[in-house]
Amino acid sequence: MGRSRYKFTQPDQPHFMTLTVLHWISVFTRPETVTILLDSMRHLMSQGLKIHAYVILENHLHLLAQSPELDKDIAKFKTYTARQLIKWLTERKAKTVLDQLAFYKKSHKDDRAYQFWQEGVHPELIQGEAMMRQKVEYIHQNPVKRGYVDRAEHWRYSSSRNYLDIEGLLEVDRLW
Fold first, then answer.
1. Computed over its alpha carbons, how large is the radius of gyration of the chain?
2. Alpha-carbon gap, residue 97 to 64, rounded angstroms
3. Of 146, 48, 51, 109, nearest to 154 (Cα)?
4. 176 pLDDT tier (thresholds 50, 70, 90)
5. Which residues contact 83 (CB under 8 A, 6 or more apart)?
6. How far apart are CA 65 and CA 170, in angstroms?
7. pLDDT at res. 2
8. d(CA 158, CA 176)
9. 3-state secondary structure of 99
10. Which residue of 79, 118, 130, 163 has the fewest CB atoms within a 10 Å radius of its CB?
């Protein structure tokens, strides 16, 4: 399968995205790996990225975000986090996961030993408040629908708490 045909049609507008670990490999099962994602998000937020909602699950994350150059910010995020997560896995000698990241790597990625993220993020331009609300709800209900928690705000790695005026792990922009 080739590169994603989905594009950021209006990179400065809010988009819903899904970032998936290659072959749906579970990597975000430890606080240290999630911290790599959150720290990268915080850095990009300090440079103009607005995150409206997010959830991090064991092998993917959903984001509702915007920035003047969202396509470039997401590319930076994926590049940086891939390097950091592969470094983290290598330092811990996580051979099974690393072997999978090497095995499932796309053949055209011959400049590296591993591929961390699946190609593309299938960005969906948010077209109005109703769509924004629907995507925020989808993001927050994801761990509930998977049976991980009974209530969305119980999932630590989500912006659900922010929407209930409870401090979350990441400051989100609730103004659309």
1. 16
2. 28
3. 146
4. confident
5. none
6. 13
7. 42
8. 18
9. helix
10. 130
